[in-house]
Amino acid sequence: METSGTLPPPIGVDRAIQWNVSLKLAGSGVAEATRIRPDAIRGFLSREAWWKFVVTAESEVTEVLALAERFALPRARILLQPEAVRREELVERSPWVVEACKRHGFRFSPRLHVLLWGARRGGVMARKAVVLLSGGLDSATALAVARAEEYECFAMSFDYGQRHARELESAVKLAAALGARRHLTLRLDLRAIGGSALTDDLPVPRDGATRRSAKGIPVTYVPARNTIFLSHALAWPRCWGPTTSSSASTRSTTPAIPTAGPSYRGLRAPGESGHPGRRRGAQPLPRSRPSRHPDQGADRRPRL
Questions:
Q1: Would you say residue 122 lies in a domain?
Q2: Spatial CA neighbour of 175 closest among 156, 158, 160, 149
Q3: Are residues 57 and 105 in the same domain?
Q4: Staple 75 to which of 16, 36, 105, 153, CB 3.0 to 4.6 Å?
Q5: Same structural domain for residues 30 and 152?
């Protein structure tokens, strides 16, 4: 049984259970008071636990040595693992970790699941993802994240009557460059609905200006566009089995957009959107780490 070791082993649990305690190091960004709980560690010591550490540098091996001395962790029961989610990373980073284990009397854990399946989970079958690809920065990031995690990606774009075609041209190039299995462009005429500077006879803001409606919504907002797009993303893979859907939005621009912020139900966990076309087993991609645009300080966090 694996645990982060922040709670002691439950009282009354069969002592025959093997405990693998994976303590987080300082590089995890978690405060020491949260990740290192002396009482819990001593409880697992009494259960002859194994101690697993994911290391990225020699400095973290030094940190493991300090913890081993502080809590009298038996070195023969300490496992070091290189940080890796892809095979090539595992092959590249393993040698120095092996040498560190040899020097300090630790054991090496080869992360066999990464060697066999890379970033894929649940077996040898490639996970599939539908990525809504507009051709802009955010959706390009969503596709790049999905490919980096070894999803088999099916990109979907929309020609919905928007005034410009530049992003659609970029979407074609991005799908090819990032290795999408297939790229589908659907044609929908949202000009019939109107209500947006992108699909109606309304002036488009220039020079970085942002015009808003009386409700504070940007005039470039296309009514329910993301909901319409996500509906098609959910419908496309119906015959494939469990599939992931992915979209992305920019945090600095989402608060005023009804179908882009964190409160938008279409971006929540499976089943919460209430969409009747959603197949059982479909999952959203995990959210990526924050990233910053090189030309502005606003936090641009793709919502996947």
A1: no
A2: 156
A3: yes
A4: 105
A5: no
Question: Do 272 and 281 form a contact (C-beta atoms < 8 A)?
Answer: no
- Helix residue ranges, H only, 201-302: 225-235
Beta strands, E only, the chain: 2-3, 20-22, 50-55, 78-82, 107-108, 128-132, 152-159, 182-187, 244-246, 283-284, 291-292, 299-300
Count of residues for the chain? Answer: 304
Answer yes or no: do 109 and 159 share one domain. no
Range of the domain at 20: 2-117
Which tens digit of pLDDT belongs to each residue from 149-187?
778 888 999 887 776 778 889 999 999 888 888 898 988
261 lies in the same domain as 280: yes
Phi-psi region of 104 (alpha: psi -120 to 50; beta: other; left: phi over 0): alpha
DSSP 8-state assignment for residue 257: -
| Model pLDDT for residues 38-93, shown as the tens digit of each residue | 999 999 999 999 999 999 999 999 999 999 999 999 999 999 999 887 788 899 99
Two structure tokens written together for 83: 């940080």
CA distance 58 to 47: 29
Among 117, 145, 166, identify where a domain stops.
117
Largest CA distance in the chain: 73
- DSSP β-bridge partners for residue 132: 156
Q: At what angle do helices 87-104 and 58-71 cross, to 10 degrees?
A: 50
Tell me whether strands 2-3 and 20-22 are parallel, antiparallel or unpaired.
Answer: parallel
- Of these ranges, 38-52, 115-129, 140-154, 184-198, the one predicted with the greatest mean pLDDT is 38-52
What's the pLDDT score for residue 245? Answer: 54
Residues 109 and 162 in one domain: no
**Structural domain total, the chain:** 2
Report yes or no on 123 lying in a domain: no
Q: In the listed set 56, 88, 117, which residue is the last one of a domain according to the structure? A: 117
129 touches 244 (CB < 8 A)? yes
